[in-house]
Design a protein that fits this description.
Blueprint: E1 12-14, E2 17-23, E3 26-31, H1 32-41, H2 47-50, H3 54-68, H4 71-79, H5 85-95, E4 102-108, E5 112-114
Helix pairs in contact: 1-5, 3-5
């Protein structure tokens, strides 16, 4: 579980993971939220999915995973920690055999947030 302590002054925090994902015949490189938003807004998503916010879409993927993943695989994923719920949702989606989404590479996000604590 992530620590709730504030980082020391001047410490850089990684913003997340940048994924290389195979989807619709091409490779997309972006953080999980951007990839999910692109998938959600694509012509292959249903009207109901396209009308959701990105957060609602990610939550729906996680909530519906029990219908698309074998029980033991889902249990494994539920025990893992993810930087964000968007990362969790993308990992679940990529594990769903019929999604057509495949994660090729996971790398630390290049962009970092510089934290200055005022004491």
């Amino acid at each position: 579980m992530p620590s709730k302590r504030r980082p020391a002054r001047g410490v850089r925090l990684p913003c997340g993971i940048r994924y290389s994902v195979w989807y619709t015949g091409q490779v997309k490189k972006a953080p999980a939220r951007e990839i999910l938003a692109a998938i959600q807004k694509s012509g292959q998503a249903s009207g109901e999915l396209r009308s959701m916010s990105a957060t609602q879409y990610a939550r729906a993927l996680v909530d519906d995973a029990a219908y698309f993943l074998p029980r033991k695989l889902l249990a494994y994923f539920q025990q893992q920690e993810y930087p964000t719920e968007f990362d969790r949702a993308l990992e679940y989606l990529a594990a769903m055999p019929t999604s057509g989404v495949r994660i090729l590479v996971r790398e630390p996000h290049d962009d970092t947030e510089h934290v200055e604590n005022k004491r």
